[in-house]
Amino acid sequence: MYSIEKRLFGYWLTFGGTIDRAEMSAWLEQSRALLSKAEPPFGVFVDMRTLLPLTDDAQIAMRDGQRLYKEKGMKRSAVILSSAVLTMQFRRIAKETGIYDWERYINADKEPNWEDIALRWINEAIDPDKVP
After folding, report:
1. 51 φ, ψ to 5°?
2. Is residue 130 part of a domain?
3. Of 51, 50, 46, 56, which Cα lies nearest the Cα of 21?
4. Domain count of the chain?
5. Across the chain, where does the E strand assignment appear?
6. pLDDT on residue 129
7. How many whole angstroms separate alpha carbon 39 and alpha carbon 72?
8. Quick check: is 56 in a domain?
9. Which residues contact 130 (CB under 8 A, 6 or more apart)?
10. What span, in angstroms and rounded, lies between the C-alpha atoms of 46 and 29?
11. pLDDT beneath 50: ranges in the chain
12. CB under 8 Å to 76, separation ≥6 — which residues?
């Protein structure tokens, strides 16, 4: 399951459960349509707390989507996760797509105020990796 919501800062993406290549491709196509009208720069909030690890096929569409968001004007993104395996998977994908420097990963199980931390990164560039 996925959803895309337009917000004041940009886009709030939610991914949950098992997402196969077909569903990830549908997300990519919906993203293309929305981002064709986007006014850069914008932020991206990604809630992946309930997402299961992606198959290799689904990862291909995710890589294309990450590149698309960056090309269309993404300034920063925050990814909320609850799985160490998924965190490693998405750090690797972000490095492969070249968005790693603009993306931060927040563990919802360890950070009770994960939404505030993410929004401060997106809106104010307060880096959660550098805050004591």
Report:
1. -75, 140
2. no
3. 56
4. 1
5. 2-7, 10-17, 42-51, 74-81, 103-107
6. 86
7. 8
8. yes
9. none
10. 17
11. none
12. 43, 44, 102, 103, 104, 121, 122, 125
The tokens of 66 are what?
């990450």
Q: Is residue 33 part of a domain?
A: yes
Nearest Cα to Cα of residue 81 among 11, 16, 10, 37:
16
Q: pTM, whole model, 2 decimals?
A: 0.91
**Predicted pLDDT of residue 131:** 67
What is the longest distance spanned by two Cα atoms in the chain?
Answer: 41
Work out the burial of residue 49: count CB atoms within 10 Å of its CB; fewer than 13 is exposed, 13-18 middle, 19 or more buried. Answer: middle
Q: Is residue 129 part of a domain?
A: no
What range defines the domain where residue 37 resides? 2-124
Residue 14 belongs to a domain with what CATH number? 3.30.750.24
Q: Tokens in use for 117?
A: 């931390």
Q: Packing angle between helix 84-97 and helix 56-71, nearest 10 degrees? A: 50
Structure confidence at residue 90 (pLDDT): 81
pLDDT at residue 132, rounded to an integer? 65
